[in-house]
Automatic annotation (TrEMBL):
Gene source species: Paenirhodobacter ferrireducens
EC numbers for this chain: 3.4.21.89
Active site (UniProt): S40, K100
Top-level EC class: hydrolase
Protein name: Signal peptidase I
Length: 260
């Protein structure tokens, strides 16, 4: 009887190990789960959105594995990202995963002028898209408080941000939010994107740590190609509460929502 018991334990351990191996291979090669922790990509992505990152989109690098442990130099099976893609990448200096929109390709000249994005000397097309409204209350596990264009707003009040639809030179359109007309990154120098690197920005333009802040000053700066992890294509579900397991706080309008 003891031998049967021991055999059962061994088989259970084997099953768990194989399940972990299969899950690790799936996460490394195909799709990686990602939970949105901040509001830098509103209103495209909300705090609490849960999505899977397509890791086949751009090929693989050392950062494709957990803890950047893949024994890969550069990128293999590399595919070039497209302007306007929403991309998950490893921050080059902070060793954490970020998600932003790809704005600048190698060789591009990027500049913000009075809050308007300019690519290669030309302003992007903008169209009014009304107002983005949300409740002024702590959000997500970090209990982050949203910034509002109409501040001061009391807890429980309606937090507003101006919304515009921005169209990039390749025809990709997406919404952006504006909180202030004189934010520190509303006017920038011209950034020339080096070969093999990319320029990223958040859609919540006045609440995003992105490539407008140079790496030398502690910001993101340009992101080398080998730090790309994958493309975000679709929100699977979204939780408005402190945890994704609080199913009673799930947002019913965001199930399987495509990411534009």
């Amino acid at each position: 009887m003891a031998k049967k018991s021991e055999g059962g334990i061994v088989e259970t351990v084997k099953t768990i190990v194989w399940a972990l191996v299969i899950a690790g291979v799936f996460r490394t090669l195909f799709f990686q789960p990602f939970w949105i922790p901040s509001g830098s990509m509103k209103d495209t992505l909300l705090i609490g959105d849960f999505l899977f990152v397509n890791k086949m989109a751009y090929g693989y690098s050392s950062h494709s594995c957990p803890f950047s442990a893949c024994p890969i130099s550069g990128r293999i099976f590399a595919r070039e990202p497209e302007r306007g893609d929403v991309v998950v990448f490893r921050h080059p200096t902070k060793n954490v995963d970020f998600i932003k929109r790809l704005i600048g390709l190698p060789g591009d000249k990027i500049q913000m002028v009075q809050g308007v994005l300019h690519i290669n000397g030309e302003p992007v097309q903008l169209a009014d898209a009304g107002t983005f409204a949300e409740v002024k209350a702590p959000q997500g596990p970090q209990q982050l408080m949203p910034r509002c264009e109409n501040d001061p707003v009391g807890i429980g009040g309606t937090c507003l941000k101006a919304r515009q639809t921005e169209t990039l030179p390749n025809g990709v359109s997406h919404d952006i939010l504006n909180i202030s007309d004189n934010w520190v990154a509303d006017d920038t120098p011209v950034f020339t994107v080096p070969e093999g690197q990319y320029f990223f920005m958040g859609d919540n333009r006045d609440n995003s740590e992105d490539s407008r802040f140079p790496a030398a000053a502690g910001g993101l700066g340009f992101v080398p190609a080998e730090y790309l992890i994958g493309r975000a294509d679709r929100v699977m579900f979204s939780s408005a509460g402190k945890s994704l397991f609080y199913f009673w706080t799930w947002r019913p309008d965001r199930f399987f929502k495509a990411i534009d």
